[in-house]
Amino acid sequence: MTSLEGSRVAIGVAITPLARTVTQEQIAAYADASGDHNPIHLDNAFAVSVGLPGTIAHGMLELGILAEAISVWAGGSANLKSLSCRFSKPLRAGDTITCTGTVVSLDEAEGVATLEVGASSDRGDRVLTNGRATVRLSR
Question: Which ranges of the chain have pLDDT less than 50?
Answer without folding.
Answer: 1
